[in-house]
Specification:
Length: 457
Amino acid sequence: MSGEPSDAIVFFGATGDLAYEQIFPALLGLVTSEGVDVPIVGVAKAGWTLDQLKARARDSIDHAGGADEASFAKLASLLRYVDGDYNDPKTFENLKQALGGAKRPLHYLAIPPSLFAVVAPALAAAGLSENARLVVEKPFGRDRESAAALNRILLAHFPEEAIFRIDHFLGKEPVQNIVYTRFANAILEPIWNRNTVRAVQITMAESFGVKDRGAFYDSTGALLDVVQNHLLQVLANLMMEPPTGEDREAQRDQKAALLKAVRPLDETSIVRGQYRGYRSVPGVRPDSDVDTFVAVKLTVDSWRWAGVPIYIRAGKCLPATAVEATVQFSPPPRNVFGDEKPALNHLRMRLSPDVSIAMGLKIKRPGEAMVGDPVEMVLSEQTGSLTPPYQRLLGDALRGDGELFSREDIVDAQWRIVEPVLKNPPPVTVYEPGTWGPEAAEALIGSDGPWRNPETG
């Protein structure tokens, strides 16, 4: 496939919620900040006109913070619209006409995965897959088998290097900052291994419930919504080997190798919880056993990380809204000063809502006695990302840069990790809103704990 930038953008599902919340603002950013000047074709079956699509784009951008008239006019001048059924070949004939002379379109399937099997073959049949790129949204399947089936459908019409599996979490600046901090600082490499690292913790906490997403969430749960994808990607960034060579696939090669070395979960390495009141949310089954909280213990079967436990937890209705990754280091080999609690140094990376990197140390307390207190030095603190994740990722896809997207073998490795607990998961335990989940999560981390609870954000 051509290494040139795409010369058109097509987004299916143009009238949907994802387009409203994310895609239109991202397109505005690409047009006004990055100089993208190609046809942008929305496709949907809504009975709309182009003027109605432009009005929807205006509402979306106002909802996201607004834009000056000149900026919006530039985006609006590039918009096209094709209304039609995805099962109707005429829809794709009309799309081909709307693309004009474009030879390298980027097709973004912002539609349910169940429709991928309809749209991908239809694009190929209409001659719209050659030299094209394809962006698809998660979830990539419901389990390992369905993910493999989905990949077979896509690969029948597009080569792997042309498929961009979007996970907006990977487009966030602080997630990329993990990799940069690790490999731009030589002082970390000697201590980034089983000899000095005691444990790793990753927490994604949300202080709110499922809101009006009850029906969606009740078919997903915390494990599939954020752990199987987002947080395993954070784990890969934290623990992968340094990329080698200049190949653009080098970083994804190392992520895939790390995830393939993670031991699959079993019933003893997972705790599932459900906040009290979840079953009364509209759209949720009255006897639902879906997890709104999950904590897991993982290990990596590699030379570098053998024996180092990794703890990941995610949940709703917790006391804070924050995402943090903490690498905990082993205590000194000898307790020189007879401290009751030996120093447990750590490196903490806060990914949201604010961004910071901090180092935990123990320093001497003023006075005659050789006693100390734990302190945390903030090494870097920033506001949120300047470039929204969807803008960053769509820009990369236009240029053909797949580094921040999931590859087929990475997706398969993620499903392999969670597969054993999908068919026969342990029962959920009810926890009270505003707490840190079921007590069993504390038992899971045991002597490797306690959990490091993020401050309220």
